UniProtKB/TrEMBL annotation:
Protein family membership: Belongs to the cytochrome P450 family.
Keywords: Heme, Iron, Membrane, Metal-binding, Monooxygenase, Oxidoreductase, Transmembrane, Transmembrane helix
Lineage, opening ranks: Eukaryota, Viridiplantae, Streptophyta, Embryophyta, Tracheophyta
CDD domains: CYP90-like (cd11043)
Keyword Iron found: yes
Gene transcribed to yield this protein: LOC125418180
Protein name: Beta-amyrin 28-monooxygenase-like
TM annotation in the entry: none
């Protein structure tokens, strides 16, 4: 009897734990976590590359409802969608949820990047980035960006009858990043940087299996090389600041190094600078190059919209002395062109979705999101919602005639709330200057169909080959 009583006492806590687990399980969202580590990652990646990711998520919604659990990139995950979900993701207190990249992104971009930080650390790094990226600071770089775009077009577009748009746009955006963010001009150093960078980004959205044959493993190795290159740049810029009195606004790295506390100590650690420079590279590379590529595709398919953009840009050309660089005031006149860019972002958002991490148990939609789980959301779920945007499959820049008419947290290409993308103004300037030169200097005709896939950013069929011809100067 003593033995039985002892067993009974030992079973009581086990019974209580099982009861508690069952209660918690009942409160978890419906769905399955799938195979350990892999989960539904391969299914989502396949759907993205087949451009069926929207349907893949819609099927989950039909099967499980507006909230469901799954496993993505090695982490248990809750998928949520809709305007309320976007508001929850972008506006929640940082003590409740925080940015959460996939394991592959975190390992490749570094744990000190802004998407991994929260609270005071996040604010400190964000403020440092904004010091360089805010409109007041970027005004002085419009002419330099104009010069980079002109050099690119002269080298890669003029004299050609056919080009492939996406790879050339990636070269353009990378060159602008190197020039404005790092102060690296054309040459072998920039070429080596580009080679390592391209290897690094190939495995950013991948299953985090560090095996010799995986894209993830190759990207990790490339990331180490890129970080070492950036560390060299940081050391050079620090020396220039200390010995030569370089301007704090020379480039992003110099700007971040120049921020000091009251004791004249650097606010940011070297690792924080390196990792956030890498984030800035990635954010400005695939996203803006994709946006420019799809603007060209939409303009080729929409003659009336193309004509309106051309008219707006040609009026600016006529108002300036020949050959003069664009100015901040010129960009302010490109209102319709920016509406075209916003509509392009709505229909083909560069970032399909994002992740957050629950810092505590959260009640959402009648279910439990456990502490430590990922929260996954997708931009297209509101961008293509017929209850929010009438005829969402129609390309219509007039949707953005009045920004206030778009419901909050429904258009989220740049995020929303207190964590809206700090580089959105940089992207706006780059896009407007590039489109200005494209529509005033070239005509183009598509040589491929309108299909595209995601890997993870959108990639048009065959990289969007086009036939181009020069326009006569105005």
């Amino acid at each position: 009897m003593d033995a039985l009583f002892t067993i009974f006492l030992l079973l009581i806590p086990v019974f209580l734990l099982l009861t508690r687990w069952r209660r918690s399980s009942k409160r978890l969202p419906p769905g399955s976590l799938g195979i350990p580590i892999i989960g539904q990652s391969i299914g989502l990646l396949r759907a993205m590359r087949a451009n069926t990711a929207d349907e893949w998520l819609q099927q989950r919604v039909r099967e499980y409802g507006p909230i469901s659990k799954l496993s993505l990139f090695g982490k248990p995950t809750v998928f949520i969608h809709g305007q309320a979900a976007n508001k929850f993701v972008f506006n929640s207190d940082s003590s409740i949820i925080t940015n959460q990249q996939t394991e592959s992104l975190r390992m490749i971009l570094g744990e000190k990047n802004i998407f991994e930080l929260s609270g005071y650390d996040h604010k400190r790094v964000r403020d440092a980035l904004l010091l360089f990226l805010k409109p007041e600071s970027l005004k002085q770089y419009v002419g330099k960006m104009d010069g980079e775009i002109r050099k690119h077009l002269e080298m890669h577009w003029h004299g050609k009858q056919q080009i492939t748009v996406l790879p050339l746009m990636k070269i353009l955006t990378f060159n602008i990043i190197c020039s404005l963010l790092f102060g690296i001009e054309q040459g072998t150093r920039r070429d080596k940087f580009l080679e390592c960078f391209q290897q690094m980004i190939e495995g950013m959205w991948s299953v985090p299996l560090k095996l010799p044959f995986t894209r993830y493993n190759q990207s990790i190795k490339a990331s180490i090389r890129v970080q070492n290159m950036i560390k060299e740049l940081v050391q050079e810029r620090r020396k220039e600041l200390e010995q030569e009195g370089a301007s704090p606004r020379k480039d992003l790295i110099t700007c971040m190094l120049s921020i000091r506390n009251k004791d004249n100590e650097e606010i940011l650690t070297e690792m924080e600078i390196v990792h956030n420079v890498m984030v800035s590279m990635v954010a400005g590379y695939d996203t803006t190059s994709g946006l420019l590529t799809f603007i060209m595709r939409f303009l080729a398919n929409e003659p009336a919209i193309y004509a309106a953009v051309v008219q707006e840009q040609e009026e600016i050309v006529k108002s300036k002395p020949s050959g003069e660089f664009l100015t901040w005031e010129d960009l302010a006149k490109m209102k319709y062109t920016w509406k075209v860019a916003l509509e392009t972002l709505r229909m083909v958002p560069p970032v399909f979705g994002g992740f957050r991490k629950a810092l505590k148990d959260i009640e959402y939609g009648g279910y439990l999101i456990p502490k430590g789980w990922q929260i996954f959301w997708a931009s297209s779920m509101t961008h293509m919602d017929t209850s929010i945007f009438k005829e969402p499959s129609k390309f219509d820049p007039s949707r953005f005639e009045k920004q206030a008419s778009v419901p909050p947290y429904c258009f989220v290409s740049f995020g929303g709330g207190p964590r809206i993308c700090p580089g959105n103004e940089f992207a706006r300037i780059e896009t407007l200057v590039a489109v200005h030169h494209l529509v005033t200097k070239f005509n183009w005709k598509l040589l491929a169909d309108n299909s595209y896939f995601r890997d993870p950013t959108p990639i048009p069929a065959q990289g969007l080959p086009v036939q181009i011809s020069p326009k006569k100067p105005l």
